[in-house]
Structure of Putative PEP-CTERM system TPR-repeat lipoprotein:
Amino acid sequence: MPFVGIGFHILLALFCAVHVVRNGQQLYWLIILFSFPLLGSLVYLFVIVLPHSRLERSARRVVRSAARAMDPGRELREAHAAFEETPTAQNQMRLAAALLDAGEATQAAERYQACLQGPFAKDLDIRLGAARAFLEAGNPGKAWEHVQSMRAEQPTFRAEAVALLAARSLAALGQDSAARAEFESASERFGSVEVWAEYAIWALKTGDQATADPLLARIDKVSAKWNQLTRQLNEPVMRRLRAARKPG
């Protein structure tokens, strides 16, 4: 039994080390991982891996949705107050995210862009937020620039989210062939309802019913089994899909 424990520690450290190398993390993590196999691995998981996992992002989305339902303007008010009191880069990032959640995409894009001028110029999470904000603000060209930058910096970073931003940006730029290729690739790689829904929305807007129909059938089959929480998590994209499905 002691050998099983030791083996697990080593395997966990190796898993984290591979994550360090593949995701371009600071190499000092390798020293920590192999100097303190169990403790270093646990710290790495909680500090680096979990905050960027789909489970963690889903949990944050649920919390934000619940908070907005109880007090829709609270986070934006608090983010404004925090930035006015202490105008740090972190508070500006928080304000940018709050503005984007509140539908103020143009202001959010300006805030994200300001964050990218300083020491966080290469922060991929900020760049991802900027890409989303510019796309929502009607500036797909700028969103596409951020997508290309993220892929050049770290090809594996938030691959599904970046792929969808790439496809939607290209579609908004009128580059339908490139957009289709991005949607097809994302559908094959990730196979999520969000990908299918975004692909179907694009297909419906372009009048491509032959592409839209099997995607819609797949979405309807999967979504019929959702519980309330899953429906809440997917409501934003499903709302857009319902609007796209309406005739005329």
